[in-house]
Amino acid sequence: MRIKNKIELYDFDDFAQHLLYDINTLPKFNDPKHPNYKYLPKGYAPAHRDISWISYAFSKRTYSYMDVCSKYGLKLISGRDEFRDRIRYSMDDWFKEYQECRNTLINKGLQDFEPDEGPNTQDFSKKCNVCNTFYVAAQRAGLDVFDIGIALGFYPRNPKRSYKNYVITDYITLLKEELNSGLREELGLYEDEAPRLTSLKHERSWLWAAILRSDYIYTDLVRAAGLKLFLDDEGLRGLNGNYIHEITGVKVIEYTRNLGILSFKEAHPSAIDNLNAIDILLVRHDNFIHQIENKQNIIFLPRDIHLICIDITISRDINFIIEKFYKGYQGPEKFLIVVVFEDQFINIQIPYDVKYRDNIRIITIEDYANFLSPNNNGEIMNFFKYLRFLVESIKRFDDDHFAQLEELYKRAKQRLKLLQKRYGFRQKDLEIFLKKNRLYNLLRMPQ
Predict the structure, then answer these.
(1) How far is CA 59 from the centre of its chain?
(2) Higher pLDDT, 398 or 280
(3) SS3 string of the chain?
(4) Is the distance from CB of 191 to CB of 227 less than 8 angstroms?
(5) What is the pTM of this model?
(6) Residue among 99, 221, 190, 189 nearest 151 (CA)
(7) How distant, in Å, are the alpha carbons of 12, 46, 132, 185, 193 from that of 26?
(8) Which of 82, 98, 178, 422 has a C-alpha 20 to 30 A away from that of 387?
(9) For the CA atoms of the chain, what is the radius of gyration?
C-alpha cells in the first residue's frame, strides 16, 4: 500500500485505512529490535511526525489528522501533559534540560558520547523515560531536540564513529544500508528513491548530522548513489526554498558587510525564548541609516527600531506566511520584512491578534532589491529577478533550471565559509554585539 501519487484521490476513509495499515505493519511500531522502535499502546495513533506522509497529506484537507483518529477511536500520542508542565519554559530551560538528559544517559551508563555529540533519536526515545518525556514535550512545544543540541554544540550521536574520515563512497554505503534495513519501507520509497534530508533528520538523525557536517551536498550524494530524491510538490518547493535562502542570504551578507553594515545570517531574534531563525538580520546603526535607509523609499522604519528581521519565502501557502508573524520576529524594537516570490501575497491581511502588527511589511523580491540597493545599477535587482525566473521555471527535479539553481547553491555554500571566517555573522556574533551594547533584551518575544 502506498500513498505517493494517490494522495489527491484519498478521501476520509482512505486516510484512516492507510493509517491503520501503517500502525499494524511498519517495523518501527511492531518490531522491538528495529533501530527506531517506538512503543505504541493498543488504541493509540502515533504522533504525526512518526509517519512521514501525514503532515503533507492533511495540509491538503479541511479535516485534520486528529479528526480521523477520533472517528476510528484512536487516541493521539501528543505529549500534551509533558508540554503543559513546561509551558513557561524559556530557551535557557530547554537548553538546561537537554544537557540534563545527556548527563543522565552518561551517568546511568546507558550511553557515552564524544565531546561534540548528544543523544540521537534512539537515545531519546528508547533508553530513558526522562529523555523520552523531554523529547515528546519538545515536539509538542514546536521545538526540535536536534536544533536545541546543535545550538549547544552537540550533534546527534553517530554509532559509526569512524565517519569523521569518510569519503563520498562511505556516505553512499551508509545511506544504502539504512534504506535496505527498513528506512525505505518506513518512508514508502521506491527502490530508486532516496528520502528528503528533512525526513532523514527525524528517522536517522545520526546520518543526517554526519552528512550535515561533511563537505558534501546531499543531492550530490543521492546522484552518486544512483538514486533520485523523493520529491512531491511540497518537497520540491521545500528544497527550492532551502536553496533560495542560502543563495540570497550569502548575497545579502556579502553586499551589506562590504558597506560596513552589521548583518547576520540565520540568527535567532528571540533566542531567549525560542529557536526560530530568521534568514537575515540587520542592525540599524549609522552605516545602515546612511547606506540603505535614507536612500530607499520602500519601507518606513519607526524611530525605536534597532533590529530589522528579513524572512524570504517561495511558499504559496498563506497560512505558512501568517505563521511567521507569531515567531517573535517583530516587537517594539524589531521590524519584520517578509519577502515573497508570489506578488499576490503582499496584500495579506495581518491578523489583529498579532503583536506589534504595525512593525511588519510584506514586499516582493523586486522591492527587496530596491530596499537594499536603490543605487546599485541593477546588480542586486538583476540577480533577484534571475532567481525568480529559475523558481518559476522549475517544474520537476531533473529540470535544467533546477540544475542552475543547484549550482548557485553550491557556489553560495563555498562562499559562505569564506565570509564567515572574514566577518563572523552567526548567532554567537550577534549576541556578543548585543551584550556589548546593552541590547541583549531585544532577543525576547514581544509581550
Answers:
(1) 17
(2) 280
(3) CCCCCCHHHCCHHHHHHHHHHHHHHCHHHHCCCCCCCCCCCCCEECCHHHCCCHHHHHHCCCCCHHHHHHHCCCEECCCHHHHHCCCCCCHHHHHHHHHHHHHHHHHCCCCCCCCCEECCHHHHHHCCHHHHHHHHHHHHCCCCHHHHHHHCCCEECCCCHHHHHCCHHHHHHHHHHHHHHHHHHHHCCCCCEECCHHHHHHHCHHHHHHHHHCCCCHHHHHHHCCCEECCCHHHHHHHHHHHHHHHHHHHHHHHHHHCCCCEEEEECCCCCCCCCCEEEEEECCHHHHHHCHHHCCCCCCCCCCCEEEEEEECCCCHHHHHHHHHCCCCECCEEEEEEECCHHHHHCCCCCCCCCHHHEEEEEHHHHHHHHCCCCCCHHHHHHHHHHHHHHHCCCCCCHHHHHHHHHHHHHHHHHHHHHHHHCCCHHHHHHHHHHCCCHHHHCCCC
(4) no
(5) 0.60
(6) 99
(7) 21, 12, 20, 7, 18
(8) 422
(9) 23
pLDDT at 201: 79
The candidate with the shortest Cα–Cα distance to 339, out of 388, 377, 266, 402, is 388
Cell 528533512 appears where? Answer: 198
Domain-wise residue ranges, the chain:
7-76, 80-156, 161-230, 235-443
Q: Which three cell numbers stand for residue 220?
A: 550530490
Please state, in angstroms and rounded to a whole number, the distance separating the CA atoms of residues 107 and 105. 6
Query: 127 — phi, psi (to 5°)?
Result: -95, -15
Specify whether the CB–CB gap between 250 and 415 falls below 8 A. yes
Cα–Cα distance for residue pair 279/248, rounded to 1 Å: 9
The tens digit of pLDDT for each residue in 21-64 reads 888 888 777 776 666 666 666 677 777 667 766 666 665 566 67
Phi, psi of 362 (to 5 degrees): -110, 125
What integer pLDDT is reported at residue 2 of this predicted model? Answer: 45
Higher pLDDT, 311 or 316: 311
**What's the confidence (pLDDT) of residue 136?**
77
216 Cβ neighbours under 8 A, 6+ residues apart: 168, 171
Model confidence pLDDT, tens digit, residues 113-148:
888 888 888 888 777 777 888 887 787 666 778 888
Q: Mean pLDDT throughout 186-210?
A: 80
